[in-house]
Amino acid sequence: MDLVFAEREITRVLYRYAQGVDRRHFDQIEECYWPDGRDNRVDGSIVDYVAWLREVLPNVETSTHQYTNVLIDVDLASGTAESEAYCLNVSVFADPAAHGAARLTTVLRYLDEWHRRDGEWRILTRVVVRDWTHED
Q1: CA distance 3 to 116
Q2: Which domains does the chain have, with CATH numbers?
Q3: Which residues contact 9 (CB under 8 A, 6 or more apart)?
């Protein structure tokens, strides 16, 4: 496997994650992580993380995740990688009165550790950093 192919496969998983969240395809979101993976937004497993998304996303009428800068460092010998992906997220709330805003714009950075197992790249650990938010 060459470096360019590995970077492309990792980028594709990032895109599938964003599409999964925006389209509420929860199985697709879960498939972006290894079963023993972690996401810092919940204290628990990836199953717990997806369960949390199932609770919070119905409050969001629509959302979009758009990646800008994506930097991936791959170690082919160990089958590991690290990435930092900037993400612009806009969420429109179904009930603005309940949330105090109609729209939330957030700039995030996804700091991911990747592992390649059985020829497939998935996220092992994700740390989400919010750089700024704006409510309308």
Answers
A1: 13
A2: 3-135 (3.10.450.50)
A3: 120, 121
